[in-house]
Amino acid sequence: TEPSNGHAPVVDDEKTPGEPPEQAVRLKRRVGLLSGVALIVGTMIGSGIFVSPKGVLERSGSVGLSLVVWAGCGVLSLFGALSLSELGTMIHKSGGEFIYILTAFSGEQRGGKGIGAVPAFLQAWTTVLLLKPASLGIMTLSFAKYVVLPAYLVAKAH
């Protein structure tokens, strides 16, 4: 029977026959079409779509050029997304970018001659200490700006 908390027992089949299998608790790998599209769109677009069009239009000087810039950035993002999806189909371990970098630099394919876990470690800590907090700060500021703006406009009108 499967527990109702979203976790499924995983059986380790690498034991010798006759030994009882070990069970570890892991998340179920289940993402449907709607939740997958929502996850990707939310990650790719984020709050920048509400904040940056004004700056792009001001710096580009024309609507046409700003649309070209947006299309170019979209193509670059598509290349990144396709690369990550290819890595996800090749490497069957959970851990995302950390595991991809660890696999690339560990030297498993070159007979153990690699620089080890240092690049993956640095990427993980950079993400935890810099990238995620900065991203959450920008999203919070954007959210606050658009939530408070109507109240400010009403107060200013009186």
From TrEMBL:
Residues 1-22 are annotated as: Disordered. The chain crosses the membrane at residues 31-51, 63-84. GO terms for molecular function: L-amino acid transmembrane transporter activity. Keywords: Membrane, Transmembrane, Transmembrane helix. It comes from the Eukaryota. It is found in: Membrane. GO terms for cellular component: membrane. It is a multi-pass membrane protein. This is B(0,+)-type amino acid transporter 1. It comes from Ornithodoros brasiliensis.
